[in-house]
Design a protein that fits this description.
Elements lengths: L16 H18 L17 E6 L5 H12 L3 E5 L13 H8 L5 E6 L4 H8 L4 E6 L5 H15 L6 E5 L6 H12 L3 E5 L8 H11 L5 E2 L11 E4 L24 H4 L7 E3 L20 H6 L1 H12 L19 E3 L12 H4 L7 E4 L2 E4 L11
Parallel strand pairs: 1-2, 1-3, 3-4, 5-6, 5-8, 6-7, 8-9
Antiparallel strand pairs: 10-11, 11-12
The structure holds N-carbamoyl-L-aspartate.
């Protein structure tokens, strides 16, 4: 039986395809147990669980933090933590590693969200207990990917063979950086749809290619491809992650999902979004049966229940047979004395974290933020 007991989760790439699908199956059982997003009101209490989840959130969050806390409470455990860096000792200048080390003495599991890329990896190293990356800057968001895959599996009954269009700010959006390689690995086809300046970063494209044998198609206009998709995954412009303040102004309104677009889409195509939505999906679309983003968000609770239960060793993962197209391991690069030149990388800001590089698809990338060396911010 596969087990995640005692393991951390920084990137979906750390999970095998069978582990991902096992987690989704367990999440399905959890969904049944809690009535999935359709609270029936009070019910008999779960057996109390002697475990505490600490949520360390240094960046805004609604869904990720509350669904993690709700998941832990639903499992019968307890949740503690902070929702903004100003209410933690970060405001007094404490390092991330020191804060994590301390909190890991107070909890059995940590979920952390942080604006610096690679922060999850620093947290894992500092912690005495398993850590879940709840989003690290523009880098990764593995539990959102599990939530996205759960929706696809639930609605379509499979992931392999689906054609999924990823639309929006693919450059800065961490959800798609985690989702694209996972989809590719599980046999789905990925199409990247973005304004030219918001295209998918090269390392992510290469990782998709590693699984599928070819770089995914990149298009700029959603109209061109919407007629052929099984799911359209929409993301907002990540205005807080542009290098220049206000730099997002040029792309605001560059894409929008509305009724006119959906008139060109297949009748069974799902419209997904990790949320929050800003103006990239017209609220008039919410009534369309293809709009599943709120159901997608509801799935965050059973998915995170499954993950927490597996990591705490409460459940083994159900055995699932999966045809997987595995990703290559990243190989450490010795003797690189250079620093990472991504100014949002955790190694640039956190004291005592020496730079580390790995080779990936023939390129040297930072082991923390996965940006190619000498690419710049
Ligand atoms: C996403 C995130 O934080 O990256 N939100 C979420 O967790 N559901 C998407 C976003 O902020 O655009």
């Amino acid at each position: 039986m596969a087990s995640l007991r005692g393991r951390s989760l920084v990137s979906v790439d750390e999970l095998t395809g069978a582990e991902i699908m096992g987690l989704l199956k367990l999440a399905g059982d959890m969904a049944k147990a809690i009535g999935f997003g359709d609270s029936k009101g009070a019910r008999a209490p779960m057996a109390p669980l002697d475990a505490i989840l600490a949520a360390m959130f240094y960046e805004p969050s609604t869904r990720t933090r509350l669904s993690f806390e709700s998941a832990m409470l639903r499992l019968g455990g307890q949740a503690t933590g902070f929702a903004q860096s100003t209410s933690s000792s970060a405001a007094k200048g404490e390092s991330l590693a020191d804060s994590v080390r301390i909190v890991s003495g107070y909890a059995d599991l940590i979920v952390i969200r942080h604006p610096l890329e690679g922060a999850g990896r620093v947290a894992v190293r500092a912690s005495k207990v398993p850590v879940i990356n709840g989003g690290d800057g523009a880098h990764l968001h593995p539990t959102q990917t599990l939530t996205d895959l759960f929706l696809l599996q639930r609605r379509k009954g499979r992931i392999a063979g689906l054609k999924v269009g990823l639309l929006g700010d693919l450059r800065h959006g961490r959800t798609v950086h985690s989702l694209a390689p996972a989809l590719a690995r599980l046999g789905a086809e990925v199409v990247c749809i973005a304004p030219p300046q918001l295209g998918m970063p090269r390392p992510v494209l290469k990782r998709v290619a590693e699984a599928t044998g070819a770089l995914p198609p990149e298009v700029t206009a959603v109209d061109e491809v919407v007629g052929s998709l099984d799911a359209l995954y929409v993301t907002r412009v990540q205005k807080e992650r542009f290098e220049e303040p206000g730099g997002h102004q040029d792309v605001v309104g560059a894409y929008r999902v509305d009724r006119a677009l959906l008139a060109k889409a297949p009748p069974e195509m799902l419209v997904m979004h990790p949320l929050p939505r800003v103006d990239e999906i017209d609220p008039a679309v919410d009534d369309d049966p293809r709009a599943v983003y709120f159901e997608q968000a509801d799935g965050g609770v059973p998915v995170r229940m499954a993950l927490i239960a597996a990591m705490l060793g409460l459940h083994d993962l159900p055995r699932v047979t999966v045809e997987e197209r595995p990703l290559n391991a990243l190989t450490p690069v010795a003797d690189v004395t250079d620093h990472c030149d991504n100014d949002r990388c955790v190694t640039v800001h956190e004291p005592g974290v020496p730079p580390e590089f790995v080779t990936f698809a023939g390129e040297t990338v930072c082991a923390y933020c996965e940006r190619p060396l000498r690419e710049g911010g």
